[in-house]
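Dear U.,

For the methods section draft, I wanted the exact inputs and outputs in one place so we can describe them consistently. I've listed the two proteins in the order they'll appear in the manuscript figures. Please don't edit the token lines directly; just add comments below if something needs changing.

First protein:
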Amino acid sequence: MAEEDRMVKMEVDYSETVATVVPECETLAANGKLNEALEKLFLLEKQTRMAGDAISNSNVLVCVVGCCYKADDWPLLKENLTTLSKKRGHFKLAVTKMVQRACEMVPEVTDKTKKLELIEILRTVTEGKIYVENERARITKTLAEIYEKDDELEKAAKILQELQVETFGSMEKKEKVEFILEQMRLCYETKDYIRTSIISKKISTKYFDSKDTDELKMRYYRQMIDLNLHHKDYLAVSKNYHEIYTTPAVKENDEQWKEALQRVVIFLILSEYDNEQSDMLARVKADSNLSKIPYYQNVLTCFDTAELLNWSILKEVYSTHLKSKVGQATTPLDTEDNWEVLRKRVVEHNIRVIAKYYTRISLSHFASLLHLELKEAEDMLCKQVVKGTVTAKIDRLDGIVNFSKTRDTEEILNSWSGNLNSVMTLIGNCNHLITKERMVHQVN
């Protein structure tokens, strides 16, 4: 066990002595007699440390760094911070109080060079000490902010990533989330998207179910929206906006919840079809607030109905509303790339509808229903088959698309066996009824 972890029984109470000596030393330091004041304080520091008086020792250490700071003697301040934190048998409480006092000085320092020197010495003093991990985290965050102001984003991101705040037991949950959100923001701005995604998983979204977390929840999901948009994961973006939409603070503001719900719908129809997307589409469609934004309700209904959509008509009818501004922000469909994605989703929807109503269809008729050239229609169908959305085979010689599912040998045998069992059951029933009729006839 380390010396600093041992339990020490207080032998002498120096509180009265400290209460007398500390003001005297502060007066001496203020009058330019810093060395004389420090000599008295160092002697008292040793006495309180050896006597096991942790509280008095803390007050002495705080006074030492305070006198050096007020005297503007930076070399002595740095030297004493380092020396006092390494004293034999020092108290955790005393070192913590000293570090906390030094951390309070950082915002007060106006000279940038001196501020950086103080931060670095504090980071050195607190390195590897669990009992001052919170102070180290906060001072590191201050250093990252300074680097960011100097346009050194990569340096700021790197230094902030050193903090594994999710493992800090003494730090409040709210402060942890704020630190992680700051780490995410810096990583995203330095285009380190993989690390941003990894860091985002350190935040449990269950935390946002607590009270007074609306602001942090909004920050988190807006950062996740930026990240998912970079990866073009539209379904995840839609879910992120849905979380914002369900936030109590947003629900209270008509403009905000309408904006969030509209973006939920837009990104939902931009996302690729699968079971998850289909389930979310059904849940959003069941939301009563959707009726208050009818155009978005109608476009969502179009994708939930097993009917063919005409891309030209759809774009003409809904483009004005889908492109319009929502509050101060423009909609995602302002970009031509997203309009192209939406066109593909319309074609994919039409392919699923055709597969539902047809078992066999000519390739030319198939392309005409999709309003596409023959080659593009074939390419789109192939992509859907590869993704497993539909089952189809193309007979190029006859120009026929077959949507019937090919059954394997085991499935055919199981079906034959099931049918045979049904036939034998019916024969048994018939035999029983015939026997029953014969017996009734013989009695009569």
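Second protein (the one for the lower panel):
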Amino acid sequence: MYLKLVVTLCLITGGISAPSAKVSSSLQAIRKGGKANIFISFKDGTSTVLKNLGNRSYATREDQLNDVSYNLRINANLSQANVISYLHHQNIEDFKSYWITNQIFVKEADADHIKALASFSEVSEITPEEIIQLKPSKVTPTNTDLGYEVTWGIKKIQADEVWGMVGGNRGERIIVGGIDSGVRHTHEALAQNYVGEYGWYDPYQYSEIPSDISGHGTHTMGTAVGGKGIGVAPGAKWMACRGCDENSCSMSHLISCGEFMLCPTLVDGSHRDCSKAPHIVNNAWGGPPGEKIFHRVVDSWIAAGIVPIFSNGNSGPNCYSASSPGDHPLVIAVGNTDVDDSLYIGSSRGPAKFGEIKPDLSAPGTDIYSAKHTDDTAYGLQTGTIIIAYTFMHT
């Protein structure tokens, strides 16, 4: 599921006078009457608060989640106060403050407002919203009914042998989060281990129950935690956030999902409860190599004790094709192997643009049999998805 960043700008006439170094070059081209969706970043960022939090110890996981969330929100409130006051004063209400990245997203900002926002001393940069265009996974037609036998991928990594050991681990007491196209929560392989309340957020439509518009999210979640022989950890529970629509993932929605995973809410965004956060977040999406578009979210997850797992990308076989955020040094990036343990030709290769060896591990991802979103008993084959494998089997 990958990959191209696009920025949509409405260009008309006249431009931003006296260009500011804080404003990205693409936004400098906006003319009088033109508009763009923008992110406002602040000099304080999140690095200082996360560094300070790294020196703390916690009695419980809930204490850690609450403390990280609280301090990030305090940091954002202090950094963003003047800019938010300006936006209200200008009757600009279509914006969202993000505490996990210390940024403000403004929809359809015009050239005059961009120039004014850049004049705030606390603002470090203003950039356009990035949209990741998705490359659909390869779908292989099949009429095969496995009769709920364990799939070849499960056998290949010997997950079923772990299940059968004395005290064997099927993922019990673990919650897996997924940021993707959604999940069909009524599917027979996934219905029993959906967490329920605090388990779904849809920043696109604020839908009340989990659903999947493309099928990718249902397939990946089934591969991770599905029952009926398709999932690595069928004893784990799952929760999900729709970060992507059918063809693309907008950064504003992805960051909204990032916040939800660190401190979940009800479906309408209310009643935050960080104790409901997942232990692992599975991300089968990515952007071009070397981009730091999601790194602040990843850093915040790690500070909170949440394990980030990303696809290494589907842009192989060239070297240096590992996608971002999978190329983040502390992310577990997963490559794609076939039934013969060979790396799939389309699986992205390392090293990462930041110098790290990637992927961190590779696991079955070619012609994987898992749940489909079309019906509660539908199954199918896809290539290019990621499988969580042993990452949390022994957590």
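Candidate sentences for the figure legend, describing the second protein: DSSP finds nine helices and 19 strands in the chain. The longest strand covers residues 35-42.

Thanks,
Y.
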